Amino acid sequence: MNRYTRRTFALEAILIAVAAVFMVPLYVLVAVALRDPDSTAGFLGFTWPLRFENLATAWTESAMGPSLLNSVIITTVSVVLVIVVASTASYTITRRTQRWSRGVFYLFLTGFLFPGQLALLPLYLMFSQLGLVGNPLSVILIYVAGHMPFAIFLYCAFLRDLPRDYEEAATLDGARPLRTFRSIVFPLIRPVTGTVAILTALAVWNDFLNPLLYLTGGSSRTAPLSVYTFVGEYSANWPLVFSALITSVIPILIAYVFMQRFIMRGFATGLKG
Amino acid sequence: MTVQTTPTEAAIATMSKRQRRPGRRRPQGGLAIRPPIWFVLPAVLLYLAVVVTPNLQGVLFSFTDWDGFTKGFSFVGLQNYSSVMADDNATRAITNTFVLTLVVAIGQNILGLLLALGVNTQIKSRYLLRLVFFLPVVLTPIVAGYLWKYLLTPGGTLNTVLASLGLGSLQQDWLGNPDLVLYSVCAAIIWQGAGFSMVIYLAGLQAVPAEALEAAAIDGAGPIRRTWSITLPLINGAIVVNLLLAVLGSLKQFDTVFSMTGGGPAGASETMATIVYKTAFLYLQYPNALAQAVILTIVVGVIGFFQYRLTQRKALA
Fold first, then answer.
1. Which of A34, A46, B14, B58 is placed for a possible disulfide with A118 were both Cys, Cβ 3.0 to 4.6 Å?
2. SS3 for B19-34, per residue?
3. pLDDT for B257-292, tens place per residue?
4. Which pTM was predicted?
5. B79-316: CATH topology
């Protein structure tokens, strides 16, 4: 069964053909982005010479540089906060066995049932009263709170199965709870931290609705929001629009190429739970 | 275990207890690990303020004529809900959401499963192919939406390809035809999500014992029979999880629809998530938007709950 037969070859050929079809949209993305905006060339082909200046124009016109920086900052801060807040909370929830700790766990689980649309409007009005509209803090708070159910669920599942012997040894050696957590528990739950970090980072980076509501028109636009604004201004100019699309996704594509194994594993382990 | 016992005794005692009853909850009387309660406070306070409170407010205000600015409001019962149900645009968005969810959940799972079965073989390019099929998953959804909008415009890639293949009669206005637009959006979503389903199926497939498949092969079962009778029953956990995630994601679908069609033409591809956004932030009809959002929440909650129960049962079986 494990030999490379003629049938395996046929399967391989079919799958490569499917993969080629899968890549057509991305091929078109690059082809159109580098096209002469005034040409009426066919929709599939490149035009020569390649117009790399489209990328430069789109980059400056859409202010993509600052937007990418904003995206990086917002994503990093959100991921770090999700990890710190969720891991500490899960530690107490799993190690305290009173009834309230189960109650707190179920409180977070109810979050899976809220699609987010219901809170949209009340939250927006609350944040605008607090003067947070336009401030990246608003979306960061939403991301951190919104990812609590999933992060706490994963951390708690892992912590329940984690032997307590190391923590007991540390406690006997006189370590205080905070020290025990930082030096013993947190390193042991690193696999979950990796999964949470990857899934949160992607979700935050790619989110569009919250930046649309809270950061439109301000100076802290994220990359997807700048894409949206740019498309609104240059809707007829596909080469420039596609150049902006490319510049906005380059960081994730680079991250994907270098971390694809971790990313796929993160999805597989994180979402089975 | 208290201070009287020496550390080693305590450790041995807990270890032996642990070994005697593996998998059980911690035996009583062990060395107490009591992490401070303030560890949970940031998470709980943030969650109550940013998730629980606005959701409860949303439910409450959906029964009122609250306008968001003045303090006063009065209860109007189910009036907002009846006006949502009387609104053709809203009811069509509800139907659209169900159609989209059904098509995406089935399409994405079939494609994802086939891809997973394909790359879970001895073919040489399997790692590269996984990379290719998964790539759209990490792409920003609105970027994918604009990309597909271009592919499907009347003079766009798909129609050009059809014409050059001599299939010009199949050309369509994929995004302008109200009967087609929803399925065009589904195609884009399936393209983006298939790799995601594939990865979860792969994790399931890798747990299928090779002996079972070899035994079936010796008994004369062909590849299709082996997949149908051995592999699929063994990965039904992955099937249920995949369906759950695809359904919940599709019910909340916003980004791809918003960037590809904006809900058009004339509301033909509107989903519940897009009309909630428009009713609230473009038309400023707050109570109606909240009523729509409550309906969406109930749909997601009920379906999610039953599917979750199903995963639990599958996990036990």
1. B58
2. HHCCCCCCCCCCCCCC
3. 999 998 878 888 999 999 999 988 888 888 888 999
4. 0.86
5. MetI-like fold (1.10.3720)
